[in-house]
Amino acid sequence: MGLRVGPVRRGEGRTPAVVLIDPKFPHNVGAAVRAASCYGLGQVWFTGERVQLVGERRLRLPREERMRGYQDVQLCHSEAVFDAFDRTAVPVAVELRRTAESLIGFVHPEHAVYVFGPEDGSLGRAVLGLCHRFVIIPTRHCTNLAAAVYTVLYDRHAKRVAAGLEQINTVTGRGFDEPDHMADAVGVT
Known about the structure:
By secondary structure, the protein is α/β, with parallel strands linked by helices. The chain is built from 4 helices and 8 strands. Helix 1 (26-38) links the parallel strand 2 and strand 3.
């Protein structure tokens, strides 16, 4: 996982992608990167200055969010996120709105850019004005940011598998051995 910062050029954004608008917590950015890796997305973008990165040049997430298994996802920080995507991109706001489509019946665009608001607020008018579609996760209560990203990306993958557009994700052959007992999985004897 490399971090890309600075000005963007049209075409640098690769769909499908995740965009986090002004996230508050680095662990939620890390979880979004993890979710993107799990479901085969190549980029996670974020805006704002509230997430404090670490290291001498402040270009890394905290250690617990930098796992080698997620190096296939590029993390990008920019205030001009939407400028990076070409015209084929379809920004989808995941937002509580009266006119939003339920995720249950939502048909995911091929070139979706999933846009999530901050943990402590909603997407602003300027961002909503750039989005073409609006989707709501039908839950009894609001979810946290990381859970919302996982839910939407799982839904995309499940529907694409059902439609024959993707192979089902498996961890077979990637060094994962299912333990016989949970104690073996966590190293307890």
